[in-house]
Specification:
Layout: E1 7-8, E2 14-15, H1 20-24, E3 27-31, E4 40-44, E5 50-51, E6 54-55, E7 61-64, E8 74-78, E9 83-86, E10 100-104, E11 113-117, E12 131-136, E13 146-149, E14 152-155, H2 162-165
Parallel strand pairs: 1-10, 2-7
Antiparallel strand pairs: 3-4, 4-9, 5-6, 7-8, 8-9, 10-11, 11-12, 13-14
Length: about 170
Amino acid sequence: DLAQGLAIQAPAIVASTGTLATMSGGTVTYDNGTAGVGATLTISGSTLTAIDGITLSTDDRIVIKDEATSAHNGIYTYTSTTVLTRATDFDTPTEMAGGDFVFIQQGSTLNDTGFVMTDAVTTVGTDPVTFVQFSGAGTFTAGAGLTLTGSEFSVTNTAVTAGSYGN
């Protein structure tokens, strides 16, 4: 991690796959708390019980990376079906530096991926928080005519033969 310039954060259970409004079907309001400490994303008109196919439990860590206002992105804990709270180890400018890396442990699409925050935050709730995918063990998807078992792709089209492509 030092050679890569990364600051390793505690892993998250899941990461967002869209905006909270899209994932929940509700309206999302951001409250910056005290300069980021205690900041929340509150959902009204609906509830959020799962992200990326994983049912959430109280205190699960979640990487929110797709909000329309990127300053609202970050690492949150699942407080309830309507409230996410900025993680206590990721809610001040000192803790939110460029190169922060977080591993995603579960999810239908983002399982075993890693995301890194690209730039430092000077003012929480104002400065953009941008995560980009950095690693992705096990993130392959088999396309048309292919199957994926573990780390091996196979051709499922019966019209294709080994003789057509050699050994």
